[in-house]
Amino acid sequence: MSNQPLASKNEPVIKCDSVYKIFGDNTQRLMQENNNSIDVEKFKNEGCIFGVNGASFEVHKGEMLVVMGLSGSGKSTLLRCISRLTDTTAGKIFIDGENLLEMNSKELIELRRNKMGMVFQSFALLPHKTVLENIAFPLQVKGMSTAQSIERAAAMVELVSLGGRENYFPRQLSGGQQQRVGIARSLAVEPDIWFLDEPFSALDPLIRKEMQDEFLRLQGLLNKTILFVTHDFDEALRLADRIAIMKDGVIEQIDTPANIVLNPATEYVAKFTNEVPREKVLKCEDVMEKQDKEAKTSTITVAAEAIIETVAEAVLNESKPVTVVNKKGKTVGVLNRKSIIHVLFGENAH
Amino acid sequence: MKLTKLMATSALVGAGMLAASFASAADSKKPIVIPTHNWSSQVVMAHVIGGIFESMGNNVEYVPADSQGVYEAIRNGDVTISHEVWQSTFGASFYNAMEAGGVIDAGTHEASTLEEMGVPGYVIEMNLCPGLPNWEALKDCPEVFATADSGGKGRWLEGPQSWHGDLMPVRLEALGLADKYSVTFAGSADAIWAELESAKKEKRGIITFNWTPNFTDADGFVFLEFPEYKEGCRKEDGGDGSCGSPKGWLKKAANYQFPKTHPAAYKMFSKLSFTTTQIGQMAALVDIDKLSHEDAAKKWLADNEAVWKPFTQ
Amino acid sequence: MTTAFKQNKLLQFGLLLVVFLLLYNFIKPSDDPYLNMLWRLPALIAWLPQWLTDTIKYIMFDWISVEIYNPELEDTEEVSLVKEITRSLSWFVLFFIQSIREFLVGGIKTIVTFTSWDFISDNPWAELPGLPWTVVFGGATLLGYNLGSKKLAALVGISLAYISIFGQWEPTMKTISLVLIAALISVIIGLFLGIFAYRSKAFEVLITPILGVAQTMPAFSYLVPMIVLFGLGDHAGALATVIYATPPMIRLTLLGLKAVPPEVVEAGLMSGCTRFQLMYGVMLPTARQNILIGVNQVIMQCLAMVVIASLIGAQGLGDDLLKALNSLRIGKALELGICIVLIAIVLDKLSLAWANKQTDYFSNLSFSERHRNKFILMTILVGGIILAMIGKLVFGDGINYFFIIDTNKGITTDWFWQAGVDWIITNWYSSLEAFKVWFWEDVLSPIKNAFLGMPVIATFTLVAGIGYIIGGLKSAIIVSAYLLFIALTAWWDRALITAYLTTIAVLVAVTFGGVIGILCAQSTRATKVLLIICDTLQTFPSFIYLIPAIMLFNVSNTAVLIAITPYAMIPAMRYTVEGLRNVSPSLQDAGSMSGVNRMQRLFSIELPLAFPHIVLGINQTVMFALAMVIIGALIGSTADLGELIVGSLSDKDGIGNGLILGLCVAFIGLIIDHLLNTWARARKEALGLA
């Protein structure tokens, strides 16, 4: 590992550069007439629909980017462009520095067999295969022997806590269990990149919460590079390292959950953030102030990573600012009662 | 080119000349394909002839075939022989196939055939229509032969129209019976047998097309006596159709290669000839004695060695 | 006013009817050839059958000739290349049929294939002996047990025991060998064409009407072409069966593939499937439900063809059945028919069980457990052979009951059925006389004359008008095109008679079938029983109804209708029951809560909702009735299209006549099919059921 050039280490795992996906029978013709450059207004007037409209972003190793948008916003289309399940009209997509759109079908198959895994909203399990066979399927497709693939699949079953249900058929499982199988299948080949397309949307609220916890546990264990699509803003806030909010094919804002909540870039984004209980989203580090060396601080400390909600009461009970420390125990800032009150009751509260 | 060649060969073989010259060569071991149709005498005779072939050391194979479609099959070599070619029913198909080439005439049975309208024996015995079997008697009793859908007229149950076209309607017209009788075309031989059987149970009057030799011979079927057939009497020959059917031949047909591939077998087949009685016996073993076709053939062969042995010499 | 008219279909139909009746009453045959075209169109395509015959014969026999050395004749022969190719295909199919057959009942052809006729004549020991029936019985029962359950094993065992004990072992095995190969070919071709149609829209557009024609064209009409193309024998029977059995497989494969959820396809792609892996590992298995229905349909269709295939050389039950009917042995024909039904059920259940079989990866089996089936099978084989040898000692030269019970030497209930038929005829024939006269004179005859008295312009107005009201201009054009083809042949009057017979058969079948369906739908158990009866009747050879119908009703239109109706009633019953049983329970509850009684619920809730489905049943009833046109023709007295189709077997222009006549029947079917399907689809959408 260490002998790899430094450049590749910093290289984003996924890189999108002005990606367009345009629907419409005349797209091809318009593209040719326009010398492959895109004139959004003109194309729209001709009846084209923009599934993805000029998306550019990067996802780094171990990062989880959640793409959030309502139905028809183009979030799933974007995901399918990046997994190349659909053809991209224009733009460039790089996976580990390699140009995805120029790969031939053989290279693409290799890429998917070794680097990518995907989880689907409707689970998309093969109805004729058991839990075990479903999980082993991507391995067998690669050419792994039945015995080996089944052994590996059995390990995956344990990972997603489905032990004892190996020989069940999908139809015999609940929705949550089916999605665990979907997750196990997508992870069976140990991919670097993990795509999840609204994986929990079809589940009941309680199960959804449970699955999100499960998902976070897995991510803690595996640390994959993740592209996660959802229409649920709360889910996005809960899971994301960064969130991309999409509307009509355009990425309205891409930032960390805290920044989005604190500084919504557009009115559309603000509509989502207004309703969000901030204390449940923001962390101490998001609202802390620089430590004033002179000022006295309280005797207690809080972790920079801690959600405000969990520390609010303690901080409010202290008369002096509370020290914020990072994982290594080093002081990174202080938290005032005022900041907490702002979080809890809004900027105008005094 | 090819057609004329085939026809020339057929004609030559038909004359029996080639057969003689090839007789010394050994028969091919390839099986002789014998068709079976859906009436008993034909099936039993197929197994009888097959048995004779086998006694001569030939291999034999039976294939179910439609009795009309079979000539096309013989022409193409899918079937080797046909041993019951009825003049009036299959004459046309047979000559059509011969004309197209590939089928040869392998001689005629001793049995002469008759295909004619007639009544079951009890109709005469019970005197349901006095004067029968003379056709003139029909004038006085159409109601005896009426059915629910014949509108009070007497009904003639004719075979399928594809067998003899409008022969019977024309005859009714020519004999002046058209206002008292009408023709219904049955769809198949089965339909005729079913009607006969049903009529017999109630001893109803019925006029139906039939032929001899047939299994009905044993039951005493009586053919009607129409004015005698004369050359040129039929409508297609320029006449008015006011005559009965002629006695017909019962021929044998073979694929044109048969004399060359199986000279000995062909020689036997061309000599082979059965009488009306013998054919009737074969049918009766199945239809009356309820033997299976194969068993009937075995029994017939065992009982009639004197009849068939000479054909093989 | 105009918008009201546009929306009120009833008004539109009323107007159409008025126009139709006016045309009907005022157009009469005319001496003026142009004016007469309103009455009957000139037979402009009367040349087509002859042309078709000549073309096919030319391609088959004269197109490309090659010189081939014939060792039998010791001479080179000029043979047609096309014929050689089709005959090679025949040979190939025949070889597989014979191999299975000789494995089951013995024979020499398989050995001959690898040696020669001379070899087998010199070495008679080399003949395959065939398996004792006990071995096949035991093996099949074991298979049933392993694939399914004790229940399936019992079903398979009892069926095979019945077949053996009733002395139909050999013909049944002959039929099975043909059906297995025909079904296999149909399934494979159907799968591939279905996949191809899924991948290529153009191919789908091309093949859809061909499938429609193949499914509605009476099998009889392509028998002569089959003989010309492939020769006479089991292979021709098998290939004719394939033509008949493949269309539903193609349709259901296509339907199944289209119904695969896109996410499943994506899951397959993301797993890194190649195109091949995606199709065979993901899509086909996911579409399995539909494909299995397709396989089931193929098996049913193959067995429905058993009797017809025997007309062009297929051996086995069909051939025996025709011979039994010819000697009027209804009881025997019935037993043979039951054998056909039993094979259908057994093959169907076994194939379903096989498809649903799953592998257990964790069962840690010991050596003996893993090889248990092989042990049992070996035991059955050895035991069966020993038993057959003992049998030889015990029974001597008689029938060796432990080896194969000879054909027709088993138990038979022939006499019982025969006595039954006799009883019915002696007791009912006369009492039915009044009914027969009434039915013919007051019902059939007037309707027949009404059909024949219909001017061609009135027929077109009516059919195209209904098409326009139901499906707009496009429908009107489609149905008119079908009708035009028929009108331009020389057989328009015959087509009218076929239409008249079909109409009455459908009316009777829908009335009785509908009532039976409604009654049975009231109880779950009755529904189940009815569906089993439908399955049975569907494979039960309808040829058997022919003889009793004639015996009771003479060779007459009445007998034809009586023979057609039981078969045509099957879909009427099936779809009525299905439609009613599928009305959603919440709607039923809603009805009950609004206080309707049982009758009201049936007529105001269940029937209206089930009606679109029932209409599809009526559509199927029409198809079934048309398929029976041939059976009607075998009875006679009809002068319809079917009579000529049967006649084409003996016709020297039979190829073209058969095919064009078959097309006429198919087009009548397709007109009805188009109209009813379009209506039912629109109606289902309106009711939100689609």
Give structural notes:
The complex is a heterotrimer of chains A (350), B (313) and C (690). Chain A has 350 residues and is of the alpha/beta class. Among the domains of chain A are: 61-85 and 103-115 and 191-276, Rossmann fold, CATH 3.40.50; 279-345, CBS-domain (Roll), CATH 3.10.580.10. Chain A has helices spanning 6-10, 27-33, 40-45, 75-82, 105-114, 131-142, 146-159, 175-187, 205-222, 233-239, 257-262, 267-274, 284-287, 308-317, 337-345, and strands spanning 14-23, 49-59, 64-68, 90-95, 98-99, 116-119, 193-197, 225-230, 242-247, 250-255, 301-303, 322-325, 331-335. In chain A, the strands form three sheets. Chain A has a six-stranded mixed sheet with strand order 6-7-8-3-9-10, sandwiched between helices. In chain A, helix 6 packs parallel to helix 8 (175-187) and helix 14 (308-317) packs across helix 15. Chain A is globular and about 65 Å long. Residues 1-8 of chain A have low confidence and may be disordered. With 313 residues, chain B is α/β, with parallel strands linked by helices. The model of chain B is unreliable at 1-24 (pLDDT under 50). In chain B, strands 7-6-8-5-9 form a five-stranded mixed sheet. In chain B, strands 3-10-4 form a three-stranded antiparallel sheet, sandwiched between helices. A two-stranded parallel sheet of chain B has the order 1-2. Chain B folds into two domains: 2-112 and 248-312, 3-Layer(aba) Sandwich (D-Maltodextrin-Binding Protein, domain 2), CATH 3.40.190.10; 114-237, 3-Layer(aba) Sandwich (D-Maltodextrin-Binding Protein, domain 2). Chain B is 40% helix and 17% strand. Chain B has helices at residues 2-14, 17-22, 40-55, 70-75, 87-100, 121-125, 161-164, 167-174, 189-202, 258-261, 263-271, 276-287, 293-303, 305-308; strands at residues 32-36, 60-64, 81-86, 103-108, 114-120, 154-158, 181-185, 207-212, 221-223, 250-255. Chain B is globular, with a radius of gyration of 21 Å. In chain B, helix 3 packs across helix 12 and helix 3 (40-55) packs across helix 13. With 690 residues, chain C is mainly α. Among the domains of chain C are: 132-152 and 371-409, no CATH class; 166-357, MetI-like fold (Orthogonal Bundle); 438-456 and 491-687, MetI-like fold, CATH 1.10.3720.10. Chain C is 77% helix and 2% strand. Chain C has a two-stranded antiparallel sheet. In chain C, strand 1 and strand 2 (75-80) form a beta hairpin. In chain C, helix 24 crosses helix 27 (557-581) and helix 26 packs across helix 27 (557-581). The mean pLDDT of chain C is 87. Chains in contact: A-C, B-C. At the B-C interface, helix 4, helix 5, helix 7 and helix 9 of B face helix 6, helix 11, helix 17, helix 21 and helix 22 of C.
